[in-house]
Design goal:
alpha+beta, elongated
Length: 111
């Protein structure tokens, strides 16, 4: 029993050092290879292992068209965990946007 307490006590400084190191870690965003794209259309598909985001541009400006061409420009594939984080981030950004500039229409209801 005393040995168990001694070994548990011995690991605490190691755990404390690991926690201190984790608190000091920073993320450095490297944008040297980043490209920017514009999209006014987005679609999402998924499987069990991945979520696929498709981005493109709709240049159809005429009402009553029978077909709307969308030029797909980018496909981003993320894990479901990354998709969940993205969903939370987007929700926060849109909430902040609407508090500053007013409500956006709900595309599911058309208003």
């Amino acid at each position: 029993m005393a040995e168990e307490r001694a070994s548990a006590t011995a690991t605490r400084p190691v755990e404390a050092a690991a926690n201190a190191q984790a608190q000091q870690m920073r993320v450095r965003w490297d944008d040297t290879n980043m490209k920017s794209s514009y999209a006014n259309v987005c679609n999402v598909a998924s499987t069990r292992e991945e979520v696929v985001l498709l981005f493109g541009i709709n240049q159809a400006w005429h009402a009553g068209q029978k077909e709307i061409p969308v030029q797909l420009t980018d496909r981003i594939i993320v894990s479901p965990h990354a998709a969940k984080r993205l969903s939370i981030l987007l929700d926060n950004v849109l909430r902040e946007y609407e508090s500053r500039f007013g409500s956006l229409p709900d595309p599911r209801t058309g208003g």
